[in-house]
Design a protein that fits this description.
Elements (H helix, E strand, L loop, with lengths): L13 E4 L1 H6 L3 H9 L8 H13 L3 E8 L5 E8 L5 E6 H5 L2
């Protein structure tokens, strides 16, 4: 097993984390580190390419990671760093689609 030290590629700015993430994903910071190091998780090729371009242009970045909640439910964690990296939002995709 090898270990890799990765430097963050950008400052995420102000960090905004949803209540559901805070309550159910205690290790969400490891996903933030992945996001900051250019590991975009499970985004499609088009989003990955857009993220690579956004690293140069300062546009928004998007990462998606599958996570298992303590009750065994599989969800998708979304991390979005806004334009100019003024803030980064961490939330579960299901939070945006619930009624």
């Amino acid at each position: 097993m090898g270990f890799h030290f990765t430097e963050p590629l950008f400052d995420p700015g102000r960090l905004l984390v949803s209540d559901e993430v805070m309550e159910s994903i205690p290790d969400y910071m490891r996903y933030l580190r992945r996001h900051q190091s250019g590991d975009w998780g499970n985004v499609c090729e088009d989003y990955a390419a857009a993220n690579q371009n956004a690293m140069r242009s300062g546009e928004e970045l998007l990462s998606l990671y599958p996570v298992t909640l303590p009750d065994g439910t599989l969800k998708e964690l979304c991390i979005m760093s806004e334009k100019h990296r003024t803030y980064t939002v961490v939330f579960l995709v299901s939070e945006t689609t619930s009624n």
